[in-house]
Amino acid sequence: MRSPPPPVPPQQQPPAYSNPYQPQAGPSVGGTRTHAYPAYGGFLNDQTAQMGFQVGRSAVMAGQEYVEQNFNRYVNVSALKLYFNVSNTYVLHKLFLILFPWRHRPWSRQQRVTPGGQEGYFLPPREDINSPDMYIPTMAFVTYILLSTFFAGLRGAFHPELLGLTATTAFAIVIFEILGLKLGCYLLAINNESQLLDLVAYSGYKFVGIIVTLVLAGLLGGGKGTGGWIGWTIFGYTFAANAFFLLRSLKYVLLPENSGDNTRGAMHTVARSQRNRRTQFLFVYSYVVQFIFMWILSRQDSGSKKSA
């Protein structure tokens, strides 16, 4: 008789690989089996990872504090924020005032009255239409650069360097204008805590008139842009409106009449001779200087067309 064959060993199954993104069964607690994410739960609970998070957070906070401290040396951030405290109603009314300033009254800025009955800080732009702001000049500056290059593209005169050239020219004009204003204020002994920010805001309102000139001249000029008689007519109106607006607005900065204490916004009486020099400086800046700068900025598109 033949012996029976040896038993065949059972085939071994290959080890199964679990999905690290699916929860796996953990130890049972109180008769209930729990699930955990071993791939990430252990990392988040690791003390070394927690220490790394704390070190990174401390480094970010230290860097932010360092930037704020060094930036505050040159610019008063708290005062700068007030110039962006605007509303939709203020922006619409301000744009209308810049383009149609002829019958506006009054031009003096409003001040907040302290509990003691004395005038204190100027009201923010949201609450006073005569208060200068930074929102409209900033948006107008960017819009002018984009709009100027856009019209150049419609004429087929766009090239990659035009965007940088337009931005550099506009920025250089603003810087040169502010430096000239600061020099004039220094020579005329005009001192105010918020004077620099006020001058920056007022110097940027010219871009509103330039944008209107470019748009209307491009639509009505028959392809001539600001070079035709329609462009010159529109430019003449926007220039006159901007000059009149600056003349009346800066009057209360350069020609103060009321006397007061040394708080912000206080006005001091000046001598007649000094007042006459300030009046001449204000007139030259509002009409002569603004005409030159607005003419250069509005003729940028004509220059790009000739160079194409």
User: How many strand elements?
Assistant: 4
Broad structural category: mainly alpha
Strand content: 5-15%
How much is the radius of gyration in Å? 33 Å
The span between the termini is: 109 Å
Q: What share of residues is helical?
A: 55-70%
**Uncertain segments:** 258-268
Shape, per Cα inertia axes: globular
Order of helices and strands: EEHHHHEEHHHHHHHH
What does this structure look like?
The chain has 308 residues and is mainly alpha-helical. 58% of the residues lie in helices and 6% in strands. The strands form two sheets. It has a two-stranded antiparallel ribbon with strand order 1-2. A two-stranded antiparallel ribbon has the order 3-4. A hairpin with a 5-residue loop joins strand 3 (111-113) and strand 4. The longest helix has 28 residues, at 160-187. Residues 258-268 have low confidence and may be disordered.
